């Protein structure tokens, strides 16, 4: 019995929790990512920055790898108009993206809600009382879990939405960060980590 207990204590946490969380942004450059559009994407002080360019159009930064089922965590800080988002199970032609977006936006604009681009529009918005969990001008922690047809989001530790959707369940594709059109936008990102799930 003693030998068994010692073995359990020293087993990797992966034995209990499945696959390991890995960083998908290295803090140095955009290795593993692809830019779409003419807006600005760059690394500064170990943070990933998206900023409006002279064209003031939509822009995206997508992972080179596709992710189906996953648990993603990241931090974002809106330094100017923070209208952005995190797309999942998505594909793109030019800057026309198809897929689903976990919203990142200024207060009272539904951060952590789910929007279907070039499709049905808003699928679910957080209850308005949850808007208070967004910290304007400060770092916020966003968690997005997608498994099968289920999507759950959290903002700063508070669950924002839960959604089951058959169309999402059939989707597949990359993860992408968005910068909205209109100009005047600047958002920083850091600590992007993902756990792939079965």
Write a brief caption for the model.
With 198 residues, this protein is mainly beta.
Structure, described:
By secondary structure, this protein is mainly beta. It has one domain: Sandwich (Jelly Rolls), CATH 2.60.120.560. Helix content is 9%, strand content 49%. It has three helices and 15 strands. Strands 1, 3, 4, 6, 11, 12, 13 and 15 form an eight-stranded antiparallel sheet that branches. Strands 2-5-14-7-8-9-10 form a seven-stranded antiparallel sheet, with no helix packed on it. Strand 12 (150-155) and strand 13 (158-164) form a beta hairpin. It is globular, with a radius of gyration of 18 Å. The model is unreliable at 1-17 (pLDDT under 50).
Average residue-wise pLDDT: 91
- Count of separate DSSP helical elements: 3
State the share of residues found in helices, binned by percent.
under 10%
Q: Which regions have little confidence, pLDDT < 50, spanning 5+ residues? A: 1-17
Spatial shape: globular
**Rg, nearest Å:** 18 Å
Q: Tell me how many strands there are.
A: 15
Number of domains: 1
Instruction: From the 3D structure, determine the CATH topology.
Output: Jelly Rolls
Strand content: over 45%
Class per helix and strand makeup: mainly beta
Architecture per CATH nomenclature, i.e. the level-2 architecture: Sandwich
**What is the CATH top level name?**
Mainly Beta
Please summarize the sheet with the most strands: 8 strands, antiparallel
- Give the topology string: H per helix, E per strand: HHEEEEEEEEEEEEEHEE
Terminal CA distance reads: 33 Å
Write out the CATH superfamily name: Exo-inulinase, domain 1
């Amino acid at each position: 019995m003693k030998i068994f207990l010692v073995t359990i204590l020293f087993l990797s946490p992966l034995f209990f929790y499945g696959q390991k969380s890995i960083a998908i942004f290295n803090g140095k450059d955009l290795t593993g990512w692809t830019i779409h559009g003419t807006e600005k994407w760059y690394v500064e002080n170990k943070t990933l920055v998206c900023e409006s360019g002279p064209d003031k159009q939509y822009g995206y930064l997508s992972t080179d790898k596709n992710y189906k089922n996953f648990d993603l965590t990241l931090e974002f800080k809106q330094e100017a108009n923070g209208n952005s988002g995190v797309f999942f199970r998505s594909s793109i032609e030019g800057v026309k993206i198809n897929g689903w977006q976990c919203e990142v936006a200024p207060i009272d604009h539904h951060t952590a809600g789910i929007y279907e681009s070039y499709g049905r529009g808003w699928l679910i918005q957080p209850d308005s009382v949850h808007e208070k969990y967004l910290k304007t001008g400060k770092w916020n922690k966003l968690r997005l879990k997608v498994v099968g047809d289920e999507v759950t989001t959290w903002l700063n530790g508070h669950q924002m939405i839960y959604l089951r959707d058959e169309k999402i369940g059939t989707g597949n594709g990359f993860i992408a960060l968005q910068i909205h059109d209109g100009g005047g936008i600047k958002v920083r990102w850091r600590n992007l980590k993902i756990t792939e799930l079965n």
